[in-house]
Design goal:
The structure is a single chain. By secondary structure, this protein is an alpha/beta fold. It has 22 helices and 13 strands. The strands form three sheets. The chain has a six-stranded mixed sheet with strand order 1-2-13-12-10-11, with helices on both faces. A hairpin with a 2-residue loop joins β1 and β2. α8 crosses α13 and α14 packs across α20. The structure holds 6-O-phosphono-beta-D-fructofuranose. 6-O-phosphono-beta-D-fructofuranose binds next to loops.
């Protein structure tokens, strides 16, 4: 059967992974699964040119994947069957594609540099978006210039972002990534963990007279954040004594104005956003306030512009030249046909070391689901386990398993071609390792090569099967613009995969149960009598803790 000539008109099944293209892809997988990438490279000297793509500041080389032109053709047809283009329009047009919460999903409006109207319930959101961006810029300029002072009249030196999940990971990752652009006087700090050690240790190093707190929480009800914010306020008042000083030292980022006011923050010092901004997609909103403070309004705008450039590419490029679509389809290829369980993110850039953490939430909270958008339990793999760390350190930790373990683990290798801060010799070493690892993963080392390389016996453990897929993403340089592009690239990859898996990628009911149970258990930890309202294990653990907890 010529698998590339499936007639789309015959495809009726609502779940893309149950359609005729999927059957064709499975057959194609059978044929390709025993083919080594060494053979594919040997057969096609143009493989790099064929399977690489430059979009703005980013080069993607996806030639070291277990694919042929036919694979991509079939995968692209899968995207067509899934109506990725239609869903993409619904996303950008503000339709309520988050069906379980009846919300639009419009992080793209936050960076809509074209400023064309984006309607939600018939109203254009752009004036409000632009107003908050302007408000952040004015505030940041006052803090950065030193005209916004603390209660003793000194300029702000330290800014503590108190938030968790999307209200922490995005801004924290971007702040680290853009350290070269930061204001010389201002240091950003991020406190997320409700383990008291986190905020206690942090505040021990700070001067309340020159510290500004950003309480960042979409809901302003998250237990970890509100507990840390209460502690920060108490710590501050112990030094400043007068509650009137709170106005100069606490600002809020939230959608919940009433809760912000109840906390005691002046609503003039509140930066708002909207329910159509998902927490893990919120760094482009006022949740990015710490970024604006650190790198200034112009650099924040460049970050937004980079994301907008990727949005435009995603909206307009044909699927076979569309970077987010290609990355998404490759992920589907490995998850649903090769049975890959995980996906590694390996930045070869010290400043991008938190990208894997950020992408864990972005991807796993979005697509870690087993019920589709119509309420059916799925019978195929959905979002992979995202993991990784700084690549060069990973080489000395877990790469052994990538090279010679029993699992197939596709990986994204990410590097900046030029680094302002790196020493040239060191950067060449970094780059050489980046290239060597992707080559070794793909090529491996045959028994013949092992024998002729002069290594001593035993030889079998020194043979590398290779054929491990990887993508190489090369940023011209790590700038606000390229970073914006990179983050938006992953956001859209996640979106496309969610469509192919027929998921609502924008709710997160799975994290709610644990939150509710924690609220129920908290008072039980101080109960005077034995707790027996749970299963035997949970009762046992609660009672063990009750008897030993510090008082
Ligand atoms: O972990 C669940 C979650 O709701 C995330 O989606 C969100 O980013 C995080 O909690 C923090 O929520 P909030 O910004 O409302 O404090």
């Amino acid at each position: 059967m010529d698998t590339t000539t499936v007639n789309l008109a015959n495809v009726a099944s609502p779940a893309p992974l149950h359609c005729a293209i999927s059957v064709a892809l499975r057959q194609h997988y059978q044929a390709l699964s025993s083919v080594h990438m060494r053979e594919l490279f040997a057969a096609d000297p143009q493989r790099f040119e064929r399977f690489s793509l430059q979009v703005g500041d980013i080069l993607l080389d996806y030639s070291k994947n277990r694919i042929t032109a036919e694979t991509l053709q079939l995968l692209t047809q899968l995207a067509e069957v899934a109506d990725v283009a239609g869903w993409r329009d619904r996303l950008f047009n503000g339709e309520k594609i988050n069906n379980t919460e009846d919300r639009a999903v419009l992080h793209t409006a936050l960076r809509n540099q074209s400023n064309t109207p984006v309607l939600v319930d018939g109203a254009d959101v752009m004036p409000a978006v632009n107003a908050v961006i302007a408000q952040m810029g004015v505030f940041a300029e006052r803090v950065r210039s030193g005209t916004w002072t603390g209660y003793t009249g000194k300029p702000i030196v330290d800014v503590v972002n108190v938030g968790i999940g999307g209200s922490d990971l995005g801004p924290h990752m971007v702040y680290q990534a853009l350290k070269d652009y930061r204001h010389a006087r201002l240091n950003m700090h991020y406190v997320s963990n409700v383990d008291g050690a986190h905020i206690k240790e942090k505040l021990e190093t700070l001067d309340p007279a020159t510290t500004l707190f950003i309480v960042a929480s979409k809901t302003f009800t998250t237990q970890e954040t509100m507990t840390n914010a209460d502690y920060a306020r108490e710590w501050f008042l112990q030094h400043a004594e007068d509650a009137a000083h709170i106005a100069q030292h606490f600002v809020a980022v939230s959608t919940n104005r009433d809760a912000v006011v109840a906390f005691g923050i002046d609503p003039d010092n509140m930066f708002g956003f909207w329910d159509w901004v998902g927490g893990r997609y919120s760094l482009w909103s006022a949740i990015g306030l710490s970024i604006v403070l650190a790198v200034g309004a112009d650099n924040f705008k460049a970050l937004l512009s980079g994301a907008h450039a990727m949005d435009t590419h995603f909206r307009t490029a044909p699927f076979e030249r569309n970077m987010p679509v290609i990355l998404a389809l490759l992920g589907v290829w490995y998850s649903n046909f090769f049975g890959a369980e995980s996906h590694a993110v390996l930045p070869y850039d010290h400043y991008l070391r938190s990208l894997p953490l950020y992408l864990q939430q972005a991807d796993m909270e979005s697509n870690g689901k087993s019920v589709d958008r119509d309420g059916n339990t799925v019978d195929y793999n959905t979002g992979p386990i995202i993991w990784g760390t700084s690549g060069i350190n990973g080489q000395h930790a877990f790469y052994q398993l990538l090279h010679q373990g029993t699992r197939l683990i596709p990986a994204d290798f990410i590097v900046s071609v030029t680094e302002q801060n790196s020493l040239p010799e060191q950067h060449d070493i970094l780059m050489a390792n980046f290239l060597a690892q992707t080559e070794a993963l793909m090529h491996g080392r045959t028994l013949d090569e092992t024998l002729s390389s002069g290594v001593t016996a035993p030889h079998a453990p020194k043979v590398f099967a290779g054929n491990h897929p990887s993508n190489a993403l090369l940023l011209d340089a790590l700038t606000p613009h390229s970073l914006g592009m990179l983050i938006a690239l992953y956001e859209h990859k996640i979106f496309v995969q969610g469509i192919i898996w027929n998921l609502n990628s924008y709710d997160q009911w799975g994290v709610e149960l644990g939150k509710q149970l924690a609220k129920r258990i908290l008072p039980e930890l101080t109960a005077t009598s034995t707790v027996n309202t749970h299963d035997a294990s949970t009762n046992g653990l609660i009672n063990h803790y009750r008897q030993r907890r510090p008082t």
